[in-house]
Amino acid sequence: MNLRQVVIERGLAPGDRGSLTRTFTSDDVLSFARITGDMNPYHCSRRFAEASRFRQPIAHGLLVGGMLTEIGGQWAWLATGMNFNFLAPVFPGDTITLELEVVSQDEHGLTVAEGRWTNQEGVVVITGGLSGYPPTPEQRKLMGEEV
Questions:
Q1: Residuewise pLDDT in 10s, the chain (147 residues)
Q2: Rounded to an integer, what distance in angstroms lies between the CA atom of residue 1 and that of residue 31?
Q3: Which residues, in sequence order, are CB contacts of 33 under 8 Å at separation 6+?
Q4: 11 φ/ψ angles, rounded to the nearest 5 degrees
Q5: How far apart are CA 3 and CA 8, in angstroms?
Q6: Residues 41, 30: Cα–Cα separation, whole Å
Q7: What residues does each domain of the chain span?
Q8: Which residue, among 97, 84, 76, has the nearest Cα to 127 in the 3D structure?
Q9: Coil vs helix vs strand at 54
């Protein structure tokens, strides 16, 4: 059973995990730059990036961090906060895996998950997390009707 189905049947609880793997392309980086207006030359200028410590363009941190929203969307999570620590660059062509785990939930339903993004070599490129509210029992029922 996939985690979306678990969410529908019983909701999220500490210990629940989700994962996602994605390969980022140069087109992804340029599309993100156009959508956000972040045309930072570290991302968009080969010559500038070659003169940097990275030696080539890097993906936007929020583009890669945004993988968090795909899992959150599958869980129908209403985010109240996100945080990221950018530890290593992600280059076009890198394959990134996000492992996300629900770590706590209070009496009001506020839920916290922590994530770790690693590249194809096992290097941790981002750590971060998500706080917010998973769907209520009524909303979970509606999700089940959409399947």
A1: 577 787 888 889 999 999 999 999 999 999 999 999 999 999 999 999 999 999 999 999 999 999 999 999 999 999 999 999 999 999 999 999 999 999 999 999 999 999 999 999 999 999 999 999 999 999 998 988 875
A2: 34
A3: 39, 40, 43, 44, 60
A4: 85, 180
A5: 9
A6: 11
A7: 3-25+59-146
A8: 84
A9: coil
- Residue identified by tokens 């909701």 is 11
The pair of structure tokens assigned to 37 is 């207006």
Q: How many residues does the chain have?
A: 147
Q: What are 45's two structure tokens? A: 């200028």
Beta partners for residue 22, in sequence order:
96
**What is the value of pTM for the model shown?**
0.91
Within the chain, strands assigned E span 17-23, 78-86, 95-105, 111-118, 124-133
**What architecture (CATH level 2) is domain 3-25+59-146?**
Roll (3.10)
Provide the token pair at 102. Answer: 């629900």
